[in-house]
What does this fold into?
Amino acid sequence: MENHENEKRQDPTAEMARHLIEAIEQVRLDMAKVELWAYAVSGFSRPVPGYDPGKTTVWLPREQAMKLGKPNNRNQ
It folds into this structure.
């Protein structure tokens, strides 16, 4: 009878230890994700190397079609 009571007392302790180990492992996995996202976001916070918005021309599709459609620009 005494042995059975000791098993019951150890069982909750072992279960708590198991839950604690699982929680710590989950925190480790979450930290890995946080580090990954932090690295990705830091990459987007820096300007694109070699990009000067003042020197870049952006054409709308209609403007580009008109420019490319002129007879002197066609490659024949």
Summary: The two ends are 100 Å apart (CA to CA). Helices lie at 2-45, 61-69. The chain has a mean pLDDT of 78.
